[in-house]
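Practice record 12: protein with D-glutamic acid.
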Amino acid sequence: MDNRPIGVFDSGVGGLSVVKEVVRQLPQEDIIYFGDTAHLPYGPKTSQTIKRLVRDNVRFLLKKKVKAIILACHTASAFTLEEIREDNPIPIIGVIGPGAEEALRVTKNRRIGVIGTYGTIRSGAYAKELKRLEPEASVIEKPCPLFVPLVEEGWIEREVTHLVVREYLEPLKEEGIDTLILGCTHYPLLKEEIARVMGGTYLVDSARATVAQMKRILEGKDLLAREGVPRHSFFVSDAPEKFARLGRIFLGKEIEKVEKVNAC
Ligand code: DGL
């Protein structure tokens, strides 16, 4: 048993969809969330910048004595997971592996689409992981950079969003994929719009699979928390009010307190 908190890192507010899953699957756990809102978005940044930012911000979580970390940001996971793992002794997981595993579990024709930020797609991290697990898989990737600002604007069911989703995804539909990985924290919020364009294509949201993996790891290492009232603390590097406002959309409930800190 271990009552130290689980750390969740994201470039901003999107990782709250992972927090929602932690609360659902691991209700007794304390959570320390850090959103690097001062440097958002990570999607268009270079790998060097992302590596530096993640390294510095993970240090903040380590100082809070977390027992494990989830890199909830797909772009951060894509570029930094291995390096961050090598440098730190606690369990650290990202969202790419669990998402790829779930896609391979459900696909019938092994034609899998991946959408994400420019960074995530440029890194090729999903394609590499899918091919490593299933060399016969065909992977079709596409960056959808406008989805993040649309979600951050709260424009989930607007005509403009519908048009943008169609513009990005109709060519993917033509590729005959039966599974599409939503490779960005924000895309699950557009699930209905995406489903409307993609028809019966199975949509993979990595959050559930990622937290299930964390649960297995904590169980295996006897690191689960004892029963009790869990504490959830939220830290950001800038604009806490905006984080709290948007956070409601991702978390589905009010966030009472958000603290601004200088992590790096
Ligand atoms: N959290 C990022 C991701 O999942 C999306 C937002 C950003 O670009 O920072 O890739």
